[in-house]
Amino acid sequence: MKSKDTNIWLFSFADLAFLLLIAFTQASTIGKTPVNIGEMKIPKVVDSPDIASLNQQKESYQLRVHRPSQDKPNPFQIVLFIGTEEISSSERLTAVKLKSRLYGIKFEGKQRPIVVPDEFSLSKDMLMAMSIIEKVWAEANWVTVNRASDIDETLK
Asked: Can you give the pLDDT at residue 89?
């Protein structure tokens, strides 16, 4: 009897279907709160003469995630920029201090900071930073829409 490898795709498909079945049963929302899945889009930055840097004098914040070390165990740092110039940076922060600082930034009416992880930072620290930002700016994902007929005619 000759063996043929032409039907090997069938086993791969069955394995994939089984893994999807396990994933969907674990993500069930019956009797639980729905699972929120995060997505992070990282743009590719290329060096090109057609691309010019933004020269706005706008105030913005970065949340840098560093690799913890023996002398600096706290991974988080908030950095203030005006345009492209770094104005000030905080000392390294714990997650609790980071959360209180971010509430202060939000209370001042500033935009949410951009998360900038160090190449050697820990994934759990980056995910913690993103989670804290999402909790502080929770309403940033909500939009109120009014029907045009509900708007007062005197406002036009």
From this structure: 83
CA 126, CA 129: separation in Å to the nearest integer? 5
DSSP state letters, 63-120 = EEEPPP-SS----EEEEEEETTEEEEEPPPB-HHHHHHHHHHHHHTTPPPPEEEE-TT
Confidence of residue 20 (pLDDT cuts 50, 70, 90): confident
How far is 109 from 81, CA to CA, in rounded Å? 16
**In a 10 Å sphere around its CB, with 0-12 CB exposed, 13-18 middle and 19+ buried, how is residue 11 labelled?**
exposed
Pairing, β 76-82 against β 85-89: antiparallel
Contact (CB, 8 A) for 97 and 45? no
The predicted structure's pLDDT at residue 16: 76
